[in-house]
Automatic annotation (TrEMBL):
InterPro entries assigned to the protein according to its UniProt record, in alphabetical order: Znf_ZPR1, ZPR1, ZPR1_A/B_dom, ZPR1_jr_dom, ZPR1_Znf1/2
GO MF assignments: translation initiation factor binding; zinc ion binding
Family affiliation: Belongs to the ZPR1 family.
Main location: other
Cleaved signal peptide residues: none
Alphabetical GO biological process terms: axon development; DNA replication; mRNA processing; positive regulation of gene expression; positive regulation of protein import into nucleus; RNA splicing
Gene designation per UniProt: 1274560
Region (Disordered): 457-478
GO cellular component, one term: perinuclear region of cytoplasm
The entry's keywords: Cell projection, Cytoplasm, Differentiation, Metal-binding, mRNA processing, mRNA splicing, Nucleus, Repeat, Zinc, Zinc-finger
Entry protein name: Zinc finger protein ZPR1
Listed Basic and acidic residues bias regions: 458-478
Domain of life the protein comes from: Eukaryota
Residues covered by the Zinc finger ZPR1-type domain: 29-187, 268-427
Length: 478
């Protein structure tokens, strides 16, 4: 228990008001500028709505050299991420950026690219990224003007173009691509949608996984040693039903009806403190909808409680858009099933929450609004201590309107858009008559939506014949 308790405090939350002095670890290390000993300070912390990070700061008292960087301390994201931001106003230059070692930054208008792993991870701004490039190009210019005057002249011209970007003589596009998925670009209009930024996720290639140190089991498996062979023989001698972790259910021993009424439990690790805990899972049927899988996790170490809902069926043929008019307390009691791919939009508040923000959950309208408020508080708390007065005033006004809506003093229109068609809102009319406060629209998904869901390349019919044809072509080529 002592080990678990210590582990939960490894990454304390970044909260300046409650913890003004976070403990930093100081390590004596060599300065790469003068080769004397300097001091490196390490701070392990957790940025709200982001993840665990390790902030490192180096300073040398002998030559005055300073350096700082940031590295992710949590797990690698399952997908890579790409931010494409249009920089139009001085406010866009002040956007805060969290970039990792694997971030590739590109400025389209100058055809300029900062390759991945060429710079250390850091917390900076768009203007700070340009300043760092200018400093890096300008540091060897005095020597370059003597030895290579033509190259120095070209670099001076390029630096001048970078300075013009800072002065915003014309808008430009900044693209940040991170194969680790551990980067972040601030939305200055939060909680409203960032119209100047496009966020997309992508599957990593085999080579990109190798750059991150991710290898498949068959790629790292060596030839089995004699001890491994003997161990495998011993394992084979044990009956599968006795040795296997997941034992098969004998035919007729557990009918489907009993499985739906049973709560299954399996061990997992807490996403907050990484302590061992149990996750309960139950298959249930929502009336007038479909089967769903409800999973709930309770951590005895840190008290974290989470619930998640997965649709029991596959992706529907059509997407669904559900509009709910919240007129009073009676609408707060509506049951809501929100899938992971469902985005939310509140028209009166001009607030939009992305598909992956709240995850999949089975709750009510009131619970959905409350969860959205809690997550927005965490996301805006990331840089709350350094926000300008205008941002604080806007967020205070928004939270005041949202609190009034949760209290039932303000009518709302909630729009749920789910391209998979796996979201649901309860109708208050059980007699089959139309619910005037509920509007359901089904639509055909676009090509981009199918591409994001992985449906364009999915082949469910005659796929075995295609594999046979490929094998035959390989034999002919051989």
């Amino acid at each position: 228990m002592e080990t678990i308790a210590e582990q939960s405090d490894v990454f304390p939350k970044l909260n300046v008001e409650e913890e003004p002095e976070l403990s930093a670890t100081e390590v004596e290390s060599m300065c790469m500028n003068c080769h004397e000993n300097g001091t490196t300070r390490l701070l392990l912390t957790q940025i709200p709505f982001y993840k665990e990070v390790v902030i490192m700061s180096f300073s040398c008292d002998h030559c005055g050299y300073e350096n700082n960087e940031i590295q992710p301390g949590g797990e690698i994201a399952p997908k890579g991420i790409e931010f494409r931001t249009e920089i139009v106003t001085p406010r866009d230059l002040n956007r805060r950026v969290v970039k990792s070692d694997f971030s590739c930054i590109r400025i389209e208008e100058l055809d300029f690219e900062i390759p991945a792993q060429s710079q250390k991870g850091e917390v900076t701004t768009v203007e700070g990224i340009i300043d760092r490039v200018v400093r890096g190009l300008d540091q060897d210019q005095p020597v370059r003007r003597i030895q290579h005057p033509e190259a120095a002249e070209q670099i001076d011209a390029f630096i001048s173009n970078l300075q013009k970007l800072k002065e915003l003589e014309r808008p430009f596009t900044l693209t940040l691509t991170d194969i680790s998925g551990n980067s972040f670009v601030e939305n200055p209009n939060a909680p409203q949608k960032d119209l100047a930024t496009t966020i997309s996720y992508f599957q990593r290639t085999k080579e990109q996984n190798h750059m991150l140190g991710i290898f498949a089991h068959d790629e790292v498996a060596d030839k089995p040693s004699n001890d491994a062979v003997e161990e495998s023989i011993k394992l084979e001698s044990v009956p599968e039903e006795v040795d296997s972790l997941l034992k098969p259910i004998r035919e007729g021993a557990w009918p489907l009806e009993e499985l739906q009424g049973e709560v299954l439990q399996f061990q997992t690790h807490c996403p907050e403190c990484a302590a061992a805990c149990d996750t309960n899972m139950k298959v249930t049927t929502i009336p007038h909808f479909k089967e769903v899988v409800i999973m709930a996790t309770v951590c005895d170490n840190c008290g974290l409680r989470t619930n998640e809902v997965k649709p029991g069926g596959g992706i529907e043929e059509q997407g669904v858009k559900i509009e709910v008019s919240v007129r009073g307390r009676i609408d707060f009691a509506r049951d809501v099933l929100k899938s992971e791919s469902c985005s939310l939009h509140i028209r009166e508040l001009e607030c939009e929450v992305g598909a992956g923000a709240l995850g999949g959950r089975f709750t009510t309208i009131e619970g959905l609004l409350t969860a959205m408020r809690e997550q927005l508080v965490e996301s805006t708390g990331m840089f709350m201590d350094s926000n300008d007065a205008e941002t604080k005033e806007r967020m205070d006004k928004f939270f005041g309107e949202l609190d009034a809506a949760i209290a039932g003093d303000k009518p709302l229109t909630i729009v749920m858009d789910d391209p998979t068609g796996n979201s649901y809102v309860q109708s208050l009319n059980d007699d089959g008559t139309p619910d005037t406060a509920l509007r359901i629209i089904r639509y055909h998904r676009s090509y981009d939506q199918n591409e994001e869901l992985g449906l364009n390349d999915m082949k469910t019919e005659n796929y075995a014949e295609e594999e046979k044809t490929e094998e035959a072509d390989k034999k002919e080529n051989c």
